[in-house]
């Protein structure tokens, strides 16, 4: 990956990763749209949270009194700043899970064949990459990071799985109180939900990117965590498969 991207690409990826959930309200896009939240109105019901995270990142760093002390972009030239801003926004927007399979399938269709053609050697793929290829690789990188909880050490994966489910359950309760249409499954069975998520989303995504960036330890840890959760399931968690 170091042969494909330059220092500014890695810096943009780091900033996007840090800021991709900044100022998150603890509710999903669907919920915000259903309650006519001000953010849903502002962003026209489209990638509401992701648009807010990206906009808030640059509002904090580039506008207002606080930007005088935290503007991390102030020493960049105008052209470099525009390039980096575009890249950061693109990566944060890519974390919208409604677009998950679009990004995943495009990566399989565009980048993987290039890698296969050159026997998996990125240095032989005609780099430096064109901007579209770079952007796709960066979007895949942040997506892998975004949904990679199950590749953390098991004690952390379990803790964050429970935290996420608790947040979702709070939203479900609020939807019932407000008589809103349900936007999430029940999450009554945490192990089943984790097995399902790894099987449908994380395993394929990290597996595809693995051919581009070796990460044996992450894949192995995810498999161990999958087996841990799967040991508690007694029904088939794969019946409702959304993959195209």
Class by helix and strand content? mainly alpha
Helix content: 55-70%
Spell the H/E element sequence.
HHHHHHHHHHH
* Strand percent estimate: under 5%
Poorly predicted runs of 5 or more residues: none
Number of strands: 0
Shape: globular
Nearest-integer average pLDDT: 89
Explain how this protein is built.
The protein is mainly α. It is 63% helix and 0% strand. The protein has eleven helices and no strands. The chain has helices at 7-19, 29-34, 38-42, 48-62, 67-70, 78-93, 100-117, 131-146, 154-177, 190-210, 216-230. The longest helix has 24 residues, at 154-177. The radius of gyration is 19 Å and the shape is globular. The protein starts with 6 loop residues before the first helix and ends in a 14-residue tail after the last helix.
List keywords for this structure.
244 residues, mainly alpha, globular
Can you give me a brief rundown of this structure?
The protein has 244 residues and is an all-alpha fold. Helices cover 63% and strands 0% of the residues. 23% of the residues are buried.
